[in-house]
Structures are given as C-alpha cells and as structure tokens.
Amino acid sequence: MADFLEFVNVSKSFGSLKVLDNVSITVQRGEIFSLLGPSGCGKTTLLRICAGFEQPDSGKVLLNGKEITPLPPHRRQVNTVFQSYALFPHLTVWENIAFGLRIAKKPKAEIQDKVEKYLDMIQMTDHAQKKPSQLSGGQKQRVAIARALINAPQVLLLDEPLAALDLKLRQRMLVELDEIHDKVGITFLFVTHDQNEAMSISDHIAILNAGRLEQMGKPAEIYEAPRTSFVAAFIGDTNFFDGVVIETKETEYSRLHIDGFVDVLVYNDKPKKVGDFVHLSVRPEKISIAHDEPAKTEKNHRNLIRGKVEDVIYLGANTKYWVRVGEYKIAISKQHKRFLLDEKPILWGDTVWLFWEADDSYMLDRYRAEDEQLLSLPSSVD
Fold first, then answer.
1. N or C end: fewer C-beta atoms under 10 angstroms in the chain?
2. Can you give the pTM of this predicted structure?
3. In this structure, are 184 and 327 located in the same domain?
4. Are residues 55 and 81 both part of a single domain?
C-alpha cells in the first residue's frame, strides 16, 4: 500500500526549545494512525503542522504525493477535532454539523441529505435541535466528529479527542470512533498520551520522545518487540535488568550476566557481542511464578531463578506479584485462566521460582536518565 500522508524530516523549535527533531513518519490511506508519547514529546505540534496551524522550521508534509507545507489550512483537505470540541454554542446540533457545507455554499437539498446521514451515523437524530449546552461530553464529541467529517476531508486530525471524558465514556467512545472510521473509510491521525487508547484503536503507532521518533509500527510489534528502553517503559509495564553479554550461542541466543542472578539466556533480537552492556526487558505477564521448581523444557531455553515474595495484589482477572531477587524487585502478572479456591496460594514472604523463555525478553540500549524525567514530568509544550 502506497504512503498517503508523509512527514519528511520535520523539525520545529519554539525559541531555544526544539520540539521536533528531524521526524519522518508515513501514514497509509484509510488507516487509523496514532501519534503517542508523554507530554512535551511534540505530537500535538506535529498535528498542528499537518493542519497548517504551524509551519515547520525545516522539512515538509505531503498528502497523496503532493506537498501541502506552504498551503493555508482551508486548502489542505484536512479537518481537526479538538479536545475542547469547539462547537458553536449558539447553534443547534443540526446547524453545527451543517456549518461547513453552508460556508461552501452547497445546495440546500445536499446539505439536508448529508446532515441527516451524519446525524444517523453518530446516533444523534433525536438531539438535532438541541444546543451544545444541553449535551453530554460524549454527545458533544460525536457532533464535533460529524462536523469535521461532513466536508469529506482526506484526513481527519484528532487532538486528544477523548481526554475530557471519564474512563467508561472514553472506552465507549473508542468503540464508536472505530465504527465511524469503518463507515467513512478516511485516514484518521490520532494524537494521544494514553497507551491503551492508541493500542486498542490504531493500525500503526509512532512513539515520540523529546521531539524524536523512537519507533513506528503495528501495536503488537511495538509492545512485543520494543527497539529502545524508552518504548519498553512507556508502552505497558516491564522489568528492566542491567547485564553484560558473556557468551553468544550459535548466533541465536546470548548469555547475560546480571548481578544477583544466575546467568540468563536471551534471544539475539539485536546485534550484540561479548562484553556489551545491555538493558534487558521482560514483561510481567511473560514471567511465570510457582512454589515448586518446574521441569526443564526440551529446548532448554528457559530462565529459572528463585526469589522472595514482597507484595501481592489480587485484581480479579489477574494477580500481581513483586518478588525480590538480589537488588531487583521483579513484577509478575499471573492471569487467572482457571482459579481454584483450594489450590495453595502464593503469599507474602513465600520463596518462589520465577521462569520465562529466552525468546520473551529483549536486549535494549541502556535506559537514559532524561527518558525517566520525560515519563514522569508534565510539560507545557506538546
């Protein structure tokens, strides 16, 4: 599939602060593509550059093969849905949705037909004559989406569109947004700092960090095979271990020495050589926990260590454990596929076995101190 929307080497600074640093991203026609990252990473600035509200210091934006960087917003065939909805308070729902068509001087019959179509699509026909002040947050968001879509833009830009809604309403609106996308079939560029939103709705995701593109790919690729420590930490939960490569085996697996551990095996997902320092990432759900030592697997690529349980939290669908091994406090998530009330529970203070397959961990570059700050501190520039 050919690239449809392209950001090519885009850079942008505000004074001495570099918000985007040579970012290149490609979006395919008809997909939902998310820009994801912490506050201050540059994702909203990139969206505003696409919309024409900001100009890049360098680089360009192409839409369907044609450069749109110098074009004013109204000539770009892109529309934006803002977090604040930006509905006209003095107009009814019907009039808000019709506004763009009226400005374009479309025939009355065409306006009537299209407005009715979109009212039905967003399930707001019974609310057509209400003012925005009479609507809930979710209803306002649906009206804002319909108003942005009715002029048939080539790209719909969504800037944190669900951030003002409560959790359950956000979850419902995600489903509705996906359904609307399936009906209209245009390209959605979705900005969010919420990992769950991006993972659940996107065809592809770009992870931004301090103005740099860290990784771009399908949600499963980013979660299961992060390329950097920042991505591994930002997407979901993970355990990090500092180690050094002490052996490479048949080019497929490496053996690492980690202080306080027995040596562990890891799949060679990145080129490393003996003596290299690495940051090892293992997701909590990849680690199994048991009272008794498990039998060796036939492949013998299982890592096996002992530790002491320091915390246990039962969450219904799963239980989370934190187990002390040397200087590390390891997080484990045990899914309750079957939960037997009469089985021996794992309790605080128990000595347990932890084990995971070598293929389920990843060698990354060492974690940067500035990444930790970006994950935890808010910023005024996004």
1. N
2. 0.85
3. no
4. yes
